[in-house]
């Protein structure tokens, strides 16, 4: 009997179109270079027409689009090219973190730990566990982008599942869930400070009642919502659409799922002991008043959240991977001398060539876009559009979320974007009766939900590099089509949760109401 081909629904056909059209684009390196050139041309055109806006944070300052093809602009292009590459945010984070991960991977620690992990929990919960880990990783700033997607690929590959689905689930959790956590993070401190400064324009006395945990209750519940949504999207939409993996990185599942040997178990035990000891030593850097990486202002919580320790998480995480990887390698005889360590590190860096090439191109594009002020102009016009719509109540909040989601496609940095938008929207919504805390949370929902589909998000390039290890000819269209369901479902379900929260009048955090009194 002939096999009946299952008919795709509208959404699947839409994703196929996104993938097809996106993959018609050139190689990501070429695309980023092309976007950089387009930004230069667009800056010249907009400059000719004297496109400008009033700076949202200073009404006395007029922001004009800079012509990057002027004599001054061309000088900037050549003088900044090296700095744009070196200063590309993910470059140092990725390379330093990968030095630690590389030892853990090359000695076999990660593979052994993953097998132990897979044996310890039901296979049906692995997807949810991966998304949950991604959401929680935001407490470690950007390190989750580097650590979890490749681990997700290996876990799924070991189980005979498509590795791209593992990368997608982890990336959705890390990036889409960046504004959800069971713990407070540097993101909470950074955004709340900007919010308080904007709110002080209307009511400085009200600002004195605000705190860094202004969204804490809501982001706690958000962790479980996003974990469930990410789990559903991965297993019901993304993975079925990807189908069976037939790439060259096929594995023998029986071999990969073989019980751990005595030597591997011994290595894991010693590695675990080293992690505990290292963790205690790291804690000593911040928990006591005399700790060298502790902050020196505010409450005990603030001295940890806003501290050199939180700004040093990338090298700390690299060290916490390196030490147990080294210990495991010594126990299992994978490391016999310092030459083995050097060789493992060199092999790890050799695999980062694609990312480094992409980092150069992406760094130029993002720097040119920021220098031209085009992103700032788009943001101000977006704000003016929302004002002219004259919305109120829940439609106003939804409108704000949608405008922010669109702006986020052009301005990747959460702090830079909020620093631009908060002086506009926080006072407007306060005057309409909505608290600065609510405006901040609505912003965070939109910002996180569309992070995973914009090439302007600084870590988009490394996700492409990770994915191309398993799908060699993968293009931006494929990655966007895989991540789009997460973005849409996160945006819709998270917004619905906020609406329910508003209707119930629940506080968003300690002393953080929905309405502005």
Automatic annotation (TrEMBL):
<feature type="transmembrane region" description="Helical">
    <location>
        <begin position="418"/>
        <end position="436"/>
    </location>
</feature>
<feature type="transmembrane region" description="Helical">
    <location>
        <begin position="85"/>
        <end position="104"/>
    </location>
</feature>
<dbReference type="InterPro" id="IPR004697">
    <property type="entry name" value="AbgT"/>
</dbReference>
<dbReference type="GO" id="GO:1902604">
    <property type="term" value="P:p-aminobenzoyl-glutamate transmembrane transport"/>
</dbReference>
<dbReference type="GO" id="GO:0015558">
    <property type="term" value="F:secondary active p-aminobenzoyl-glutamate transmembrane transporter activity"/>
</dbReference>
<keyword id="KW-0472">Membrane</keyword>
<feature type="transmembrane region" description="Helical">
    <location>
        <begin position="29"/>
        <end position="49"/>
    </location>
</feature>
<dbReference type="Pfam" id="PF03806">
    <property type="entry name" value="ABG_transport"/>
</dbReference>
<feature type="transmembrane region" description="Helical">
    <location>
        <begin position="143"/>
        <end position="160"/>
    </location>
</feature>
<feature type="transmembrane region" description="Helical">
    <location>
        <begin position="308"/>
        <end position="328"/>
    </location>
</feature>
<feature type="transmembrane region" description="Helical">
    <location>
        <begin position="267"/>
        <end position="288"/>
    </location>
</feature>
<feature type="transmembrane region" description="Helical">
    <location>
        <begin position="390"/>
        <end position="411"/>
    </location>
</feature>
<feature type="transmembrane region" description="Helical">
    <location>
        <begin position="448"/>
        <end position="467"/>
    </location>
</feature>
<feature type="transmembrane region" description="Helical">
    <location>
        <begin position="479"/>
        <end position="504"/>
    </location>
</feature>
<keyword id="KW-1133">Transmembrane helix</keyword>
<protein>
    <submittedName>
        <fullName>p-aminobenzoyl-glutamate transport protein</fullName>
    </submittedName>
</protein>
<feature type="transmembrane region" description="Helical">
    <location>
        <begin position="214"/>
        <end position="233"/>
    </location>
</feature>
<feature type="transmembrane region" description="Helical">
    <location>
        <begin position="116"/>
        <end position="137"/>
    </location>
</feature>
<keyword id="KW-0812">Transmembrane</keyword>
<feature type="transmembrane region" description="Helical">
    <location>
        <begin position="167"/>
        <end position="184"/>
    </location>
</feature>
<feature type="transmembrane region" description="Helical">
    <location>
        <begin position="349"/>
        <end position="370"/>
    </location>
</feature>
